[in-house]
Design goal:
Elements lengths: L12 E6 L5 E6 L3 E8 L2 E8 H10 L1
Antiparallel strand pairs: 1-2, 3-4
Amino acid sequence: MSKVCAICGKSKMSGNKVSHSNRKTPKTYSANLKKVTVEINGRASTEYVCTRCMRTANKEQ
């Protein structure tokens, strides 16, 4: 089960955690995914969808 958005494909991103002394250590940022029932091609299925795609879908209704 990979944590990837079913609509846009957004997944983990990487960057650096920067301390007060400006030392950098690797860090991963997970996408804000929610498990939602989505209708794709007339069939309902439970998929992981990022909150940005959920907001866009609400706008299109």
